[in-house]
Amino acid sequence: MKNPESSLSSVDLYCALMMGEIVPYYQPVIDAGTQSLFGLEVLMRWALADVNSTPVDLIAAFEEQGLMPEMTQHLLRQVAEDINELDALLPDGLHLSFNASPSQIEKPGFVFDTLSFLAALPLEKYRLVVEVTESQPLANTPEVAGTILKLQLADVAVYFDDFGTGCANLNCIEQFNVDGLKIDRLFVEGLSSGARSASIISLIAGLAQSQKMDVIAEGVETACQSQALCEMGIQIQQGYLFSNALSKTQLQQYLAA
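^ Diguanylate phosphodiesterase, sequence as received from the core. Prediction below:
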């Protein structure tokens, strides 16, 4: 049986971009200590209800067809329009994050595209965060190190996403000077079933603290999980307990409530 993404050709995906069918959704990131909005993670969705592909499938398809740069540029243009439209409802200092694969980070135009997006936002109001996904190893080359440094010099933070479950591991912390880690939902889910996940999360939090890195827990679905994370010093959280991913219209309603 073919994977869903393998049936999507480059023509299908390019047409979806040109027709405006690939749209941004936004999942709130919350400071659980104050219950205030800390940030928004930008996620990609295909607006057609009859498309039988998950976001993970679609990202894999764009990667496979070599269209990730085009998809990211398309998505970030829409995000800039949405954020400018909702600017009055959004707090100063909001962290605005988007995912980037190692293959994107390694491309020469990535810094330019990211800084172009940053320039389209209200000056100095938002903190932009690039979350490097764990699907592939991040090459330890001068070019990649230079990309990360250029982003950081422009006040763009770089995080490792889904830390500890894929290619983002302790070796990456030694090799790359990143600003933060996101604890994978698998560990957070494990808080409900035993002490092992709690021990792993505590170790990751301690590592982040020792390296002066931020730490965010994703996949938080219950109040018990949230409380346990707060007790470990992890107040910045994301998950269905707080909100699912929202369209622009839904985000506007969320912010106005």
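Confidence is low (pLDDT under 50) at residues 1-5.
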